[in-house]
Amino acid sequence: MKTVKAEIIGIGTELLLGQIANTNAQWISSQLAAQGIHVYFHGVVGDNFSRCVETFEAAQRRSDLVIVTGGLGPTEDDMTRDAAQKIFSQKLIEDPESARRVEHFYLKNNRPMSPNNRKQALVFENAKVLQNEEGMAPGMMVEHENVLWVFLPGVPSEMKYLMKEHVLPYFQDYFQLQTEIVSEMLRFIGIGESQLEHELQDLISSQTNPTIAPLASEGEVGLRLTSKGDTEEEARSMIRSLKNVILSKMGDYYYGSDDITIQQEVLTLSKEKQLTIAAAESLTGGRFIDGLITLPGASSVCEGSVVTYTPDMKEKMLGIPGALIKEYGTVSEACAKAMAMNIKQLVKSDIGISFTGVAGPDSSEGKEPGTVYIGIQIKNEPVEVYHFHFNGTRETVRNRSVKKGYELLFHRLKKDLSSKKSGQ
């Protein structure tokens, strides 16, 4: 199979203005990667005819496959067809089935149809028309001078329907996609991207098949492993072998694969150890416990939680001594320790975890924004308090605090579980 150079172009000024995110390109890229098609370029063009033409001309010169999303509607600024016509020199004709669908939509909804709505039924005379069961404007595929062009609506639900039902199956035969592609995302927490890459440098520098692609997100790191084989099992076998090598080096930081989240893993470990969790949250405002409660089966682990934002509520709800607050402040190791202990006793849970700090943007109690204390008590063990300073906006500090809480609890539970198993 030859290497297919693919390009994805989004049409719409709203994308350039940041009014909506170009999630279409991200989703399409992931689908093409799973079929072994390499995306070389992402582009976004506003509703400007000359710039659309220039972008299409460049794509025609450099790519084997061009997927265009958006600009197929009925209004004047929907100019994808007109710009592409400058490339193809093909007539635009009305597709009878698409025209019928447009008319039926307005009839069914008892709305008058303006003449420009028929524009949505226009297709190139040599196009393969893709009927849109999710909307009105059809998709189409056009082959021009050995380049396959795919035109899709910009509405994500319509685009995904056409890709799954028509486009991706067509690619299998058109590009003779016989190689099986398998991917797995390994998720790590408690180690930075640069450190993880350093520890695995020998594997990353010598990668061929499977490949290793690091991907950092807030508070954690992923490694996407992708392999190609003549059969799916051959590809999966290569993934398993490489994964075992990676985990033999970095297994202490690994918490799961693919769509699993750190919240799910903390819930799973808590269930396995038959432990319940209660949280006392200040700067995080309930986000930690909400991350657990949104998961199925959380009721067996989540005993309860309190959000005590002010010093007065910390006294009234959690019983934090006023003298302690006066001497150390609420943003302190002493307060985080008392919060973790008291919520555990109040709810009668096995684990108490607390969050207190300064999210910003201003300082508080003489502490700079980003100052965070997290306390954890498991059963009758001494309370451990962890002190951090997170950079970023108020939202970033709060999110990092929650993610760090899950990280700390995960490693504690995993360590205790490993110790218990090894002692059996």
TrEMBL record:
SMART domains: MoCF_biosynth. It holds the Pfam family CinA_KH. Residues 7-174 form the MoaB/Mog domain. It comes from the Bacteria. InterPro entries: CinA, CinA-like_C, CinA_C, CinA_KH, Competence-induced_CinA, MoaB/Mog-like_dom_sf, MoaB/Mog_dom. Belongs to the CinA family. This is Putative competence-damage inducible protein. It comes from Thalassobacillus devorans. The lineage of its organism: Bacteria, Bacillati, Bacillota, Bacilli, Bacillales. The gene is cinA.
